[in-house]
Please model this.
Amino acid sequence: MLSYVLRYSPIYLILTIGMAFLGGLVSAANILLMRYVIDTANDSGNLELVALFVLAITAMNILIGLAETTLSSIVLTKQQYKIQQKIQIELFSVVNRIQFKYYDNAEFYNQFALALNQAENRALGVAQTVTSFVGNITRISALLSIIISLSPSVVLFILMGAAISLFIQKGNVKLKQQIVLASQPIQRRGMYLKSTVYNRECAQELRMHPGVQALLTEKYSAFTNAAMGLVDRFRNRTILYSTGTATTSALVNAVSILYLATRLSRGVISVGDFSALLASCTQLYGLANSFFGIGVSFYEHSVYIQQFRDFLALGQQEYSWGNLEQIPNQAEIIFDDVSFQYDGNDKKALQHIHLRIAPGEKLAIVGVNGAGKSTLVKLLAGIYSPTEGSILVGGTPISRYREDAYRNSVNMVLQHYALFAFTIGENVLMRHVISEEDRKTVEEALRAVDLWDKVSALPNGIDTEMTREFSSGIILSGGEQQKLALARAYAQKSQILILDEPSSSLDAFAETNILSQLYQAGRDKTIILVTHKLMDVKWADRIIVLNGGRIIEVGTHKQLLRKNQEYAAMIHLGTLKSDDNTNHRLRKGVD
Ligand code: ADP
Model:
């Protein structure tokens, strides 16, 4: 974490440590100057000199205070943003390199949420702790120098107090470590519950189902109860340690005062010395205690940093892409004995899939829910890697290609696609809209999905933000959102296009138009379509029927009907939904 701060803003570390060092010296200087004030007032009664000292103290404190606030509120705040920005950007790239399968893993998810949420602040937190450490050391050294120069024997009391304190605090640090570890999972649950209220989709569900409100309240109460339970669990030991610390501190203070008062009454030390020693002892003891607090902070950081490093290592280890930049045109797809099993699932989602898809072929995949359709296309899209066997595209296993090159050639409209709170143009291109040509591409894609009229009528056109969260943007209906996701596919101009139930939210009319536009534009493209609708499959060159993770039938619509097996049964039972009014129009579009 420190190396992040050093790499991205060495000046931040230098300044904060420098300030902490200076702060240590200033607090010692304050004590010494006060000693002179008291002694001068007491011995010579020279008020002018006293005033001069007070003036010196005041001037020093004002100057230091001014320098400190200017530095921390302007220079350091800006540097903090710089560090946060760089760390976050680095994290974005790590996240993109992590295999998607880890998103199915609760353990990973926790680690991931933690890394993302805390990385930037944690780096600053570590810098802060190191700074406190340096500041403490400076203060302790300065105070010890004062005490030793004025009355070395007092150091004995301090050391005794510190030894007892060390004994108590050792247990205290352990206790705090246990509390940190135990509270982490509880806090994460709390964070999740809070976030559901802000999330738009969740908020809608919450309104639709008043009962869920009670569920949420109950779960949130359970979270706070668990947090309170932790307090109870550690209560006795917490009380023991804090009482121990407070008592030792009070006792050491009392003994020091008594000892110093005796020396003052015997005339061994002056009143100024007495006050300086007393202030030094009190401060020193307080500092010794807070030193242990710093130990606890370091431990807290280390727990987190270990998780963070594991997370980064995952990004390094699991990057499963290669270096090949060029995917041949007209690439054939081959599934060579491919099986796949999700982590944590004891059944295989796909078993021994053998499949050749010719360049330019239009392939439809059908099957009942859970048959493995989405899994098959996700493997082809490179979201997951096969557990056994391999998938070749253009004669080369997918994993040998560079990820960006592969994505340019193979594009997928996900069943659960996501639109972002970016502009419409950015959502279509999925990158910055830079040139006039980009704007043309967006327009063309929006025309293809029948959204252009609506978008062009907006004051900001394709630059309208797709959210009302930050600006006066636009909120699209479910069907319009799906159209936009399809426009994205249209604009990508990839040679292989995968559509996973792309028409579930579209009305029949929109569906006919849009899909026929897509197919026309994709005459040369290989299109693989997962669907539940009969009208979507009739255009296909070939249909494969999946069941239980296996291909059970292959053929054209007519061939499969004639076979009168699973496919025919699906049509018969209505598993594949027919919508015959629009069929002829679709065929016309394709032909
Ligand atoms: P389909 O698209 O045909 O409805 P899927 O490919 O989504 O089916 O799922 C195939 C099987 O894999 C199902 O049994 C499903 O429960 C399981 N499955 C899907 N996604 C996951 C996942 N992320 N983790 C574990 N099992 C999954």
